[in-house]
């Protein structure tokens, strides 16, 4: 038996804000949505494949201190794509950790940018290679401590 991640579902406080954020940062397209009061949602896709579902049924900010989701990580082809995403994230004013692109660990070739969405959900965009010439901000895996 083999498993692969299907799609990810996130509770959000404001569907329009979150939808715009994920479309702008990741380039996702809307594959379906509901604007009915009390049942608002959006299905976001990439190249025709469902990637993320957003459900407007939350209040407040994401609680990082409680058991559950730590962060979502998305892989891109190279460090240039990470830097392009970082530029958009900064333009949107989203919180960025580690002061930008960093390797996953000291001397690791992989690395990325770590940031938050509008509800405080922690996100990562990384490339498998190209980040090894930068210093790691922590001795432990970067993606685990932000």
UniProtKB/TrEMBL annotation:
Q: Which residues form the VOC domain?
A: 4-128
Example GO molecular function: catechol 2,3-dioxygenase activity
* Pfam families xref list: Glyoxalase
Q: What is its EC number?
A: 1.13.11.2
CDD domains cross-referenced by the UniProt entry:
VOC
Q: Which of UniProt's keywords are assigned here? A: Metal-binding, Oxidoreductase
UniProt-listed PROSITE patterns? GLYOXALASE_I_1 (PS00934), VOC (PS51819)
InterPro entries according to UniProt: Fosfomycin_Res_Enzymes (IPR051332), Glyas_Bleomycin-R_OHBP_Dase (IPR029068), Glyas_Fos-R_dOase_dom (IPR004360), Glyoxalase_1_CS (IPR018146), VOC_core (IPR037523)
Q: What is the protein's given name?
A: Catechol-2,3-dioxygenase
Its source organism is Nonomuraea coxensis DSM 45129
> Upper lineage ranks?
Bacteria, Bacillati, Actinomycetota, Actinomycetes, Streptosporangiales
Gene name, Swiss-Prot/TrEMBL: catE2
């Amino acid at each position: 038996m083999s498993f692969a991640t299907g799609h990810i579902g996130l509770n959000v406080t404001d569907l329009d804000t979150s939808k715009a954020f994920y479309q702008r940062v990741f380039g996702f397209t809307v594959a379906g949505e509901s604007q009915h009061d009390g049942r608002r949602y959006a299905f976001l896709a990439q190249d025709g494949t469902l990637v993320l579902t957003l459900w407007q049924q939350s209040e407040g900010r994401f609680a990082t201190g409680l058991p559950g989701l730590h962060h979502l990580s998305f892989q891109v082809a190279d460090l240039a794509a990470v830097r392009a995403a970082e530029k958009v994230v900064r333009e949107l004013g989203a919180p960025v950790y580690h002061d930008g692109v960093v390797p996953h660990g000291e001397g690791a070739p992989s690395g990325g940018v770590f940031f938050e969405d509008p509800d405080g959900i922690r996100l990562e965009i990384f490339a498998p290679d190209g980040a090894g010439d930068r210093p790691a901000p922590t001795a432990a895996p970067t993606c685990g401590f932000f």
